[in-house]
Design brief:
- The protein is globular.
- Helix 1 packs across helix 2 and helix 4 packs across helix 5.
- The two termini are 39 Å apart.
- The strands form four sheets. It has an eleven-stranded mixed sheet with strand order 4-3-5-6-7-8-9-13-12-11-10, sandwiched between helices. A four-stranded mixed sheet has the order 18-17-16-19, covered by helices on one side.
- It has 403 residues and is of the alpha/beta class.
- It has ten helices and 19 strands.
Length: 403
C-alpha cells in the first residue's frame, strides 16, 4: 500500500541528498543511493543517526555538520541543546500545522489567549510552540519559565483561556494562585497543552476535576517538533501524520513489531535542516492496530524510557557528561545528581566530593551552583558535600515515581 508519506519520503531523500553534504556523506557511507529510497520501508536501509554521532559530525564540520539544506540567509533561528547540538529553524510550516491541528482537537482556537510557559532561551521549545499557536491564530503571552506571581497576574488580567508548558509548572501556578487567595472563578484556563515531562494520571485528573480543564499531553523534541499526543489519559500516545516516525531495534536498525519496544527514530521531511533516521534516544512500545495496513496517524506509541543516561528534569535533558564538564574545573572528583518529586515539581540535589579546603565554603558553593546552571541550564535545589557517592558516582539518579 503506497501512502502519501511514502511519496513524501521518495521526494525528500534525493532532495536532501542534493542539498545537504552531511546527508550525502551519510548515505554514501552506507552504500545507499538516494533514488533507492522510494518508501518509508526503504528508510530501513539507512543506518540510524544517533544524537551523539550528530554532535561528532557537527564538531568535525562546524557548525552544522553539513546538514543545513538551505542558504544561511533563509535561517531564522539557531538553538542549542545538550551535546552541544545546534538546531536550525527556518519556516517549519509542517511542524506548525501539525501542532495546530492537535490544539484544535483539544479546543484551542483563534479566540484563545494562551500562556506559553516553555523556555524561550537557547532551547527551541518556547519558539516552536509560539509558532504553532500563531498558526492557529491564538494570542500568545510569551512568559517562558519562572516568576510565578507575575504569570498569575497576567493570566488573570489578560483572561488567559489556555496554557502551554510543563505540567509541573501549570500545577505550581494553580497552587500558588490558591495560596495568594485568587478566586477560582478568576482562573479562566480551559485548555492545556503539556509536554517536556511525564503527566501523572493523578495530575490530569486534578486539572479536569478542579478546573474543568481539557488537557492534551504531547511528545515532542526540539529537532523534530510534535511527534505524538494523548487527550484522554491513555498511556499510549497517537502518532502524528508526519514527520516519519519509526520504532526501531537498536541492534539491527529495523522496525520492531507490534507490542515490541524500540528506539523512536524520525525522518523530519524538513529541507531547512534535513535529518534522515535520527535516533531520539527515547524508547517506546510500538502499538499498531492493523500491521501493514494502518497509516502512521492510526498507530500509537507508549514511551518507556531513555536509551542512554540522560534524564529529563523540569523539561530539560541533563546528561552526566554535562554535569561532569561543569564540575571538573572546580576540582570536584565525583558527584551524583538526585532527582526527586515530592509534590508537583522536580527537586534536583547535587552531591559532590570536593577538595577538602572548599567543603562548606560559601563562595565555592556559589561557583558550583553557577557552573551547573550555566552548563546544564537548570538551577540546583540543594548542594551537599559528601565523602563518597558510592554506587551513584557519576550518575543522574531518578527517584521520581509516576502513577
Amino acid at each position: 500500500m503506497t501512502t502519501d508519506l511514502d511519496a513524501r519520503v521518495a521526494e525528500f531523500v534525493p532532495a536532501a541528498y542534493a542539498a545537504a553534504p552531511g546527508i550525502k556523506r551519510w548515505l554514501d557511507q552506507a552504500g545507499v543511493a538516494p533514488e533507492d529510497i522510494k518508501s518509508v520501508a526503504d528508510l530501513n536501509r539507512i543506518p540510524v543517526l544517533t544524537k551523539d554521532k550528530l554532535v561528532e559530525l557537527q564538531a568535525a564540520d562546524p557548525p552544522f555538520g553539513g546538514f543545513l539544506g538551505v542558504p544561511m540567509s533563509q535561517v531564522a533561528r539557531i538553538f542549542i541543546s545538550p551535546g552541544p547540538l545546534y538546531e536550525v529553524h527556518c519556516d517549519e510550516r509542517d511542524w506548525q500545522e501539525t501542532g495546530a491541528e492537535m490544539l484544535r482537537q483539544a479546543g484551542f482556537s483563534a479566540d484563545s489567549v494562551v500562556l506559553n510557559a516553555l523556555n524561550y532561551h537557547l532551547a527551541s521549545g518556547g519558539f516552536l510552540l509560539d509558532g504553532i499557536l500563531r498558526q492557529l491564530g491564538a494570542a500568545v503571552i510569551p512568559v517562558g519559565v519562572g516568576n510565578a506571581d507575575l504569570q498569575i497576574k497576567m493570566m488573570v488580567d489578560l483572561k488567559a483561556t489556555g496554557y502551554a508548558g510543563t505540567p509541573s509548572w501549570l500545577l505550581t501556578l494553580l497552587r500558588k494562585a490558591d495560596e495568594m487567595g485568587v478566586p477560582r472563578e478568576q482562573i479562566g484556563l480551559r485548555y492545556a497543552l503539556v509536554s517536556a515531562e511525564p503527566l501523572a494520571a493523578s495530575d490530569r485528573a486534578y486539572l479536569a476535576d478542579e478546573y474543568g480543564m481539557k488537557v492534551i499531553n504531547a511528545y515532542a523534541t526540539a529537532e523534530l517538533g510534535m511527534l505524538a499526543y494523548d487527550m484522554v489519559g491513555d498511556p499510549a500516545m497517537r502518532l502524528v501524520e508526519s514527520p516519519v516516525v519509526q520504532i526501531v531495534d537498536r541492534d539491527t536498525g529495523q522496525e520492531v513489531g507490534p507490542g515490541d519496544v524500540g528506539e523512536v527514530v524520525v525522518t523530519n521531511l524538513n529541507m531547512t535542516y534535513p535529518l534522515v533516521r535520527l535516533g531520539t534516544g527515547d524508547l517506546a512500545m510500538n502499538i499498531d492496530p492493523a500491521p501493514g495496513e494502518s497509516r502512521q496517524g492510526e498507530r500509537s506509541i507508549r514511551l518507556v524510557g531513555r536509551v542512554g543516561d540522560a534524564i529529563k528534569v523540569r523539561g530539560m535533558f541533563v546528561h552526566p557528561n554535562q554535569v561532569r564538564a561543569a564540575l571538573a574545573p572546580l576540582g570536584v572528583s565525583d558527584f551524583a545528581a538526585i532527582v526527586e518529586r515530592p509534590d508537583v515539581r522536580d527537586i534536583l540535589t547535587l552531591q559532590i566530593v570536593a577538595p577538602a579546603d572548599q567543603v562548606g565554603d560559601k563562595g565555592y558553593i556559589e561557583k558550583v551552583q553557577a557552573a551547573f546552571r550555566q552548563i546544564c541550564r537548570l538551577k540546583l535545589d540543594a548542594l551537599t558535600f559528601v565523602d563518597s557517592v558510592g554506587d551513584d558516582a557519576g550518575k543522574i539518579v531518578d527517584r521520581r515515581s509516576w502513577d
